[in-house]
Amino acid sequence: MPRPSQPPLFRQVADTIRERLRDGTYPVGIPLPGERALAEGFGVARVTVRSALARLQEEGLVTRLRGQGTLPIGQAMATRHPKLHNGLLDNIVSQGLRTRIQVLSCTRQACDTEIARLLQLPPAAPVLCIQRVRRSSGAPVMYSEVVLPECVGAAIVRPLLEEMPLLTLMEQAGYPFDHGEQELSATIAPAHVAAALRIPAGAPLLQVRRVVYDAQKRPIQYLLGYYAPERYQYRMHVSRSGSASKVWISEGSG
């Protein structure tokens, strides 16, 4: 009888690394061994390891950081939050892995009355405010202002703000998300948002307001985002048994 064909080497390597991520051999937040060390350990070429890591990155289990190697990120989140699998917040994290973030500012300041209400903080409580632009294929697709309670902001590793999704950084800092409330509406571009997105002031935009909560229903993040509608799509599959929300970045636009 003919012997069953073996899966490609890169897939075998990816399967083994995936299992090591699952059992904690490669802890979340600690870089994996380098490509050369992995290649020697598996007895394969570095190009095979590179293909395996690319596959795991597509699955949202690792991210590649400039000058820092490959970092495990996804397995702990999937294990600790199975109900978010294919959910909107889970998909937002995946979106963060496929796009690039530019941090415009990151400052500590006193929150206004509205932010204090949304984050359930005392009036004028200190918060961390982060202004960012998200890019896909080099084009700006989103401008956002994120506000974190001081305890959360102080735990964030700021040099990684442009390398990893913020929800993932919060997870690693000990503030895992559980659910969120989000509103979408149409608006026009304020001047500073238009400049960041390279569009005319007053152009139509999709505005997103989101509050993210932990398992104890404590708000741990507020986001105000502006999306260029020709570069962004929001799709939701609706059924009697539930829904899976998807965030899409249009390719080849502006």
TrEMBL record:
What Pfam families does its record include?
GntR (PF00392), UTRA (PF07702)
Indicate whether DNA-binding appears among the record's keywords: yes
Q: Any transmembrane segments, and where?
A: none
**What are the recorded GO MF terms, alphabetically?**
DNA binding; DNA-binding transcription factor activity
Report the source organism.
Comamonas antarctica
Biological process (GO) annotations held by this record are:
negative regulation of DNA-templated transcription
Return the protein name.
GntR family transcriptional regulator
* Entry keywords, A to Z: DNA-binding, Transcription, Transcription regulation
Determine if Transcription is one of this entry's keywords. Answer: yes
- The HTH gntR-type domain is annotated at 7-75
Identify the SUPFAM superfamilies for this entry: Chorismate lyase-like, Winged helix' DNA-binding domain
